[in-house]
Amino acid sequence: MKRYLYFIFCLGLLIFWSSCRKDFEFSPSTGSLEFSKDTVYLDTVFTNIGSSTYNLKVYNRSNTDIVIPTLRLSQGQNSMYRLNVDGISGSGPQQGKEFENIEILAKDSMFIFIETTIDIQTLAALQTQFLYTDAIEFDAGENFQKVELVTLVKDAVFIFPQRFIDGTTGETIIETLTFDIDDDGIDDETTIQGRFLTDAELTFTNEKPYVIYGYAAVNDTKTLTIDAGARVHFHANSGLLVTSGGSLNVNGLPSIDPDLLEGEVIFEGDRLEPNFAHVPGQWQTIWLFNGSTNNTINHATIKNGTVGILSDGNQNDASKLVVTNSQIYNSSNFGILGRGTSINGENIVINNSGQSSFAGTYGGSYNFVHSTFANYWNNSFRQFPSVLLNNFLIDADNTTFTNPLDEANFTNCIIYGNDNPELLLDKDSNDTFNFKFTNCLIKFDDPNSNFTGDQYDFGNIALYENSIFNLDPEFLDPQNNKLQIHNGSSADNAGIIFGNLTSDILNTPRGSTPDLGAYESIVFED
User: Fold this and answer.
1) Using one digit for the tens of pLDDT, what is the confidence trace for 69-100?
2) How many CA atoms does the CB half-sphere of 248 hold within 13 Å?
3) pLDDT band at 282 (very low <50, low <70, confident <90, very high)
4) pLDDT of the residue at 9
5) If we measure between CA atoms, which residue out of 435, 413, 415 comes closest to residue 499?
6) Pairwise CA distance, residues 232 & 286, whole Å
7) Is the dihedral of CA 508, 513, 515, 517 positive or negative?
8) Domain extents for the chain?
9) Domain 27-154: CATH superfamily, name plus number
10) DSSP letters of 354-391?
């Protein structure tokens, strides 16, 4: 009996206490919600195939239970996103678009789950774009808050190697390239994942982006032509490869809008979220194998690779690689790496390279005019300077092989960066080492005389004609790849008329006394 009375007493206290609580008295939201992300990025989706489910956490940090009067997608019932809010599917003709009176307890949170299914055929405005965007809106008026939604729409031309299932092991095998690597007339098996482009794929247009998995390869006697305005995206460990007898022609044009770069051909990774906009090493390289010829690159932007351009062999072939009006940024190793090859360049800008912006190694033949070789790599340690030249290689057995550096001519160029020195001439005296810097601005300060050899005789006008040293060109914003110089810079009016182009990289006509580097000087705005 006592237990029964005690139970009745406790139950009464519980009911009384509960009746006095105000837990269920919700106040309107005051616009002070906090979110786990300010933008939700959904991975690339196939047209008409649903995405994975992503989540957003919404926090009520206040001491008050609140109610959110409205929660909706900005595009409402027309949105291609759909939401689930803590298990609630919403109201309206299509569920998952609009919600009313969503409650969150004090010091509590809730989850919003986000999915999308996009029919690219309904998005005429996105024919040449990747991004589909919307936003989740919380409340309205002065209490309005929102979280952006971004989806990479997979409306592109996809190039990828075939996959096979091994009948014995069940292992997935990815197609690899087979071609003549050493010019002995025999095809060699490689471990390079990829495939050769078919004849129908040998022109990249600007109608849709191209997304490459593995290496897209150009075969003997074939030419890959890339039209102005084309966009080429590479997955991790991917790139372009031009084999012996093949060619690459990148036919970009000057852009009217320097932000849109509508005429440029752009090579970059396939991660288009803003957080990846400047991340180096997202893909491999544009690789011009020994024997490839007539390779031209004009008005291209190459960014966020491991090596922007890798050119091998054919140092006696002046048509091996001609690069004009092009930019290479954020390469985790080299901007351009030449290995016993021939490269001719004019109006080139290279910056932010993990090693050298330009390296002409194992000899070769190099001619650059009005080019800016800068390196403002943001890591505390960088092993190599902006420009490196040598005429040898050392193999795994520590054996040295030499090859003549037939020529390395730099005219009206800037070689600068955030390290010192920014030029290294690493000569093996057993072979030819020819070079000349004419009207160049070079960062090279050697107060302790650590660099010896006649290649560092800066007073020798046969090697360093009218070149200037250690004067800051005062770039606009080199950490962010803005390498323009201002009126009055030490590079202003310091050049000579030389080369094939009469305009700078932005198509600005050069004066009778041109400036050094790829840009004619401008007036910097405060």
Assistant:
1) 999 999 999 998 999 999 998 888 889 999 99
2) 28
3) very high
4) 46
5) 413
6) 11
7) positive
8) 27-154, 358-526
9) Immunoglobulins (2.60.40.10)
10) SS-SEEEEEEEEEEEES-EEEE---SS--SS-SEEEES
